[in-house]
Amino acid sequence: MQASAEADTFFCFVELLSGFRDHFCQQLDNSVVGIRSTITKLSQLLKEHDEELWRHLEVTTKVNPQFYAFRWITLLLTQEFNFADSLHIWDTLLSDPEGPLETLLRICCAMLILIRRRLLAGDFTSNLKLLQNYPPTNISHLLYVANKLRTRSTV
Question: What's the pTM value of the predicted model, to 2 decimals?
Answer without folding.
Answer: 0.83
